[in-house]
């Protein structure tokens, strides 16, 4: 007897990685390699003190580049304190106003954060901690700045898409929108 062939659903086409995702992949690979060298060298009495100094900024870059990627994909965790309860009581126009207010608050936060990061990057750019030749403390803040810019751009894009979608909305489907779809 032959078993009946089972039809498998079509697998989704593989997605191409965006440039920022390649950066994150390279950073993770670099951190993994550095830590692996440190761990494998210990039994042989080899210790590289600069790996600890290198791993901190790499980790910061991974976290903030990852935050930008998650924000771009709309997979970033959100806190919606009371949004659902409040938005259900609002008219479609009121929901749009609330969405705009929340998006404006997120954009304002990122702008203030970015301004502070630019100042910190400039202020620490010439500081060289010692163990890693050519390493500047400003690189740490530069990674945070890249991530914050990515989050800001993703928030603005989502806001623009949401407003384009709602331009023809007569309000009947507006109850499905959440702050998370914008911010």
- Amount of helix: 55-70%
The residue-averaged pLDDT reads 82
Strand content: under 5%
Radius of gyration: 23 Å
User: What would you call the structural class?
Assistant: mainly alpha
The shape is elongated
Description:
The protein is built from 5 helices and no strands. The chain is 63% helix and 0% strand. 18% of the residues are buried. The longest helix is centred in the middle third of the chain and has 33 residues, at 92-124. Residues 170-183 have low confidence and may be disordered. With 183 residues, the protein is mainly α. It is elongated.
How is this fold's topology laid out?
Layout: H1 19-41, H2 49-72, H3 83-88, H4 92-124, H5 138-166
Short structural description:
By secondary structure, this protein is mostly helical.
What characteristics describe this protein?
183 residues; mainly alpha; 63% helix; elongated
């Amino acid at each position: 007897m032959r078993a009946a062939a089972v039809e498998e659903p079509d697998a989704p086409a593989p997605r191409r990685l965006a440039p920022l995702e390649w950066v994150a992949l390279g950073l993770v690979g670099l951190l993994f390699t550095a830590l692996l060298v440190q761990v494998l060298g210990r039994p042989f009495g080899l210790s590289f003190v600069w790996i600890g100094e290198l791993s901190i900024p790499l980790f910061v870059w991974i976290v903030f580049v990852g935050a930008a990627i998650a924000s771009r994909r709309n997979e970033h965790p959100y806190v919606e304190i009371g949004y659902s309860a409040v938005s259900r009581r609002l008219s479609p126009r009121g929901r749009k106003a609330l969405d705009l207010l929340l998006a404006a608050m997120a954009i304002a936060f990122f702008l203030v954060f970015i301004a502070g990061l630019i100042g910190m990057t400039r202020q620490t750019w010439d500081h060289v901690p010692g163990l890693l030749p050519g390493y500047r403390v400003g690189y740490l803040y530069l990674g945070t700045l890249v991530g914050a810019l990515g989050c800001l751009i993703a928030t603005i894009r989502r806001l623009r898409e949401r407003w384009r979608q709602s331009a023809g909305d007569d309000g009947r489907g507006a109850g499905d929108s959440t702050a998370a779809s914008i911010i």
